[in-house]
Amino acid sequence: MTTGRADAAPVHLMILGDSLTAGYGLPTQDGFQAKLAEALKAKNVDVTLVDAAVSGDTTTDAAARLDWALGGGPIDAAIVVLGGNDALRALDPSLMKHNLSYILDKLQSRHIPVLLSGMIAPSNLGVDYDDRYTAVFTDLGKRPGLIYDPFFLAGLPGHPEYAQADGLHPNAAGVAIEVNRLLPIVLRLVAQAEKAQPKQTKPD
């Protein structure tokens, strides 16, 4: 598959996230971003990934560094995968919603197409917390123009063979499953970015 602009400049795709997209515990070549780049290249899609993932980040941390992340060069599309550390620290879901809304507002105000991939709270935090936490992503996922994926780790929980020793982070096999599942959605995002912000063609 190509995006119909073989002679055009690459789409600059920012990955704004935490350890799940930073490749925590894995060799660089086995991490989410490396495997996503590999999958996109195999589809002849010209994308330059912009690494804005920091292990340990909460949504508060990511919101605080967003201007810095956007200031390093062109950003044509963004994948936002945050909230896991908010749940691990049992932070108030209303704060998470505030931070994610700020991030999405800023990206969308710049006409940057966004894929928001949600998370699920650990069961030990109780039903009330889980309901409020899940509602944050469900509500934000209804934003016009936003591409929404309900759960970044879909297909992995309950399969320890896809997890690292900590039981939280995917191993290389788990990352491969993530990328395979998300690839069609990311291709939609790239196509949306190309339509929204046509690039100048590369010089001969």
Task: Summarize, please.
By secondary structure, this protein is of the alpha/beta class. 43% of the residues lie in helices and 13% in strands.
How does CATH name the architecture?
Answer: 3-Layer(aba) Sandwich
What is the number of beta strands? 5
Calculate the mean pLDDT score and round it.
93
Question: Structural class given helices, strands, pairing?
Answer: alpha/beta
Instruction: Enumerate the strands of the largest sheet in spatial order, edge to edge or round the barrel.
Output: 2-1-3-4-5
Beta strand %: 5-15%
Radius of gyration over all CA atoms, rounded = 17 Å
- Under CATH, the topology can be stated as Rossmann fold
Task: Give start-end ranges of low-pLDDT stretches.
Answer: 1-6, 199-204
- Helix proportion: 40-55%
> CATH superfamily membership, which one?
SGNH hydrolase
Query: How far is the N terminus from the C terminus?
Result: 23 Å
How many domains make up the coordinates? 1
- Name of the top-level CATH class: Alpha Beta
Order of helices and strands: EHHEHHEHHEHEH
Number of helices: 8
Overall geometry: globular
Q: State the major sheet.
A: 5 strands, parallel
